[in-house]
User: Fold this.
Amino acid sequence: MNTTAAPHPPTSAAHPAAAWHQLAHPLWMCAMRPFFLLTMGSAVLLIALWSAVLALGLPPPPVAGGALVWHAHELLLGFGLAAVAGFVLTAVPEFTDTASASPRTARQLVLLWLLGRAGFWLSGVAGSAALALAALAHLGLLGGLLALLWPALRTVAGQRHRAFGWALAGLFVLVAGFYADALRGAYPLRWLLALLGLVMVLIIVAMSRISMRIVNRAIDDAGEGREPYLARPPRRNLAILCIALFTLAEFLQPGGRTSGWLACAAAAALCNLMGDWHVGRPLLRRLPLMLYAVYVCMALGYALIGTALLAGGPGASAGRHLLTVGAIGLSVYTVICIAGRAHCGHPSDEQPWVARGAVLILAGAALRASAAFVPDAATALLGLAGLCWVAAFGQLCWRMAPVLWRVRPDGLWGCQG
Assistant:
C-alpha cells in the first residue's frame, strides 16, 4: 500500500547534520521516525533524571506545580505524547489507505513538541509566559494531529477507527484544563491523572488493531489449525467504559469509595478482555506475550488502586506505577519494536534483546510498585526500577535509532509497512 507521494531518493542521507534543514533526509520520510526517536530519547532522559531526584537528591526542574507534576507531565505529555503522535501518524493512514503526513508537516509537529518541552521546563523560571508557550505548543500539536487525521477518519474506511480521533479530542480538552489550572496558580495534577485514564483507553483501542495481526500471525505460524483470534468489541467497550467511569469519578471526587469500586470493575473488565487472548501455545510466542503483558499490568494496576481506595494502604501509588511504567512503558516499547521496523522496510527483529527489554520494563514496574509497600527499602527499589527502565529504552534506542535515521533497505520512500 502506498500512502505517500511517489518515491524519491534522499539526497542528504549521508550527512546527519542536514537532518533538520533538508526535508529529503530519511528522518522526515515518515512522521513516525522523528517522534519515535524523541520517544526513546525522552524515556531514557526523563527517568534517569527522576531516578537521580529520588535516589540522589538531585534538585528537579523548578516547574509550575512542583516535582511530582513535572514527572507526571513529562511522562505523559513528553514521552507519551511523542509515542501517540508517532503511532497515529502512521496507523491512521495505514488503516484508512490515505496519504501520510508530508516531511514539512512532520517537522512542524516535531517543533511544537520541542516548544512544549522548552516552555514547561522553563515555567518555574520564566513564569506565565513560558507556561503559555507550553500550552499553545501542546494544544497546537494535538489540534494539528486532529486536523490532519480527521479527513481520513471521515472516509468509509476510517469510520471504524474514529476512536483515535475522539481520543485526540479528549487529550486536547484535558491538556487545556491542565494549563488553565496551572496558569491561574491551581494545583493541576488532577488533569494529569485523568489524562492517564484516557491514555489507558487509547492503548486498548490501539491494541485491538495491533493484536489482530500479531496474534493471528502467531496462530498461523504455529500451524495448529486454530480459529483466528478476534478482538471482540463488547469486551473491549466494557473495559473502556469502566476505565472512563473510574477516571471521571476520581476526577470529581478523588479517593472516594465509588472510585474504588469502579477501579475494581475496570480490573475485572480487563481480565474479561484478556480472555479473548487465550488461544493456546501461540500466545506464548514473544510478541503476543508482550502485548498480553500490557493488559496484565493494566488489570493489576486498577486492582491495586481499587483495593487501596476501599481498604486503605499504599496500593494506589503502586497501581498507578503499574499503569505508567508497566502498561504505558511496555506498550510503547512493543509498538516501536513492531511498527518501527515494519514501516522502515525492515523485517521483524528476532534477536533476544527484544524480549530482554520487555522483561526489564516488567521488572522495573514490579520494583517501582513494590517500593510503595516496603518503605525501608524504597530508595534502593526506586533506583533499581529506574535502572531497568533506562536499560530497556537505552537498548531500544541503540538498536532502533539507526533504523529510523537511515534510508529504507527496500528502496521505498514513506511509511509503507
